[in-house]
Automatic annotation (TrEMBL):
Cellular component aspect of the GO annotation: cytoplasm
Cross-referenced Pfam families: OCD_Mu_crystall
Name of the protein described by the UniProt record: Ornithine cyclodeaminase family protein
Domain of life: Bacteria
Native species: Photobacterium chitinilyticum
Record-linked InterPro entries: NAD(P)-bd_dom_sf, ODC_Mu_crystall, ODC_N
Amino acid sequence: MIYMSETQTASLITHELAYSAVKEALVAAISNEVTLFPVVNASGPQTGSMFSLKSASTSTLVGWKTGTYWPNNHLQNKPCHGTTVFLLSPETGELIAAVASSKVNAYRTAAADAVAVDYLARDDASVLTVFGTGHQAEYEILAISAIRNISRVIVVGRSKTKTDKFIGRLTEKGVSAEAGEAQYGCAQADIIVTATTASEPLFKAHWVKPGTHISAMGADKVGKHELPVELYQHATLFCDYKSQSVVIGEFQHTTNAPITEIGEVITAHSPGRASAEDITVFDSSGIAVQDLFVAARLLELIQ
């Protein structure tokens, strides 16, 4: 069995690798070659702790990703989030690899956002507004910046202290960022990304201007909610995997709205943005085949 440590995977992962693998996974997800299984969300003994299991099977890749969140780990100077991908032999079911993927998971999640922006945002989109100042938001900004020419980043955060610190980290990485209120951020944005743990909408639907693309990245369990449902009657909706999106993703809050899986757009089987005035919304609930494809790419680098 191969074991890849967090140190190894963190040193090998790049936005380019993650984008390529996740794009391939999103296409595979719409084919008959992939089986995706229902997500298991559970809780640990510590208050607020949780862990999840996402699994998938193809002819060449079989396995699952487990993600953990233990909020009190910071008291021991340990990461609160943890991720590991396990791969089984398709022939025998034996465990063939365990890939520590905590940092990789942040890249993988952001890569899905980048793919959606690449295919759904206007070609001239350059102003990015991000809701959230936590662990994931920085990766979202950097992944989008790697595939689009972003001129401004507007950060909408609940805490001024955390927002200022976040902007400082972005500035150190060469990102032109500023703080802004929700309505201002929506009014200015060509692209909106929500990367929060919210359980109610972060902004009003009428604040979003025509032509905006929105990526909702935070909803991955029942009850999470970032976008106003009123937005859907004026928008074109896309997701990573529909049957999961409507159960634990942002689109659990829709009612019979037409939703297109992004793999259909990538393969040109379905249209994406129809005009410069369209509002497009992408829901990323995160699917296991993304994790398996990224892990397989990392394994290739050491074999």
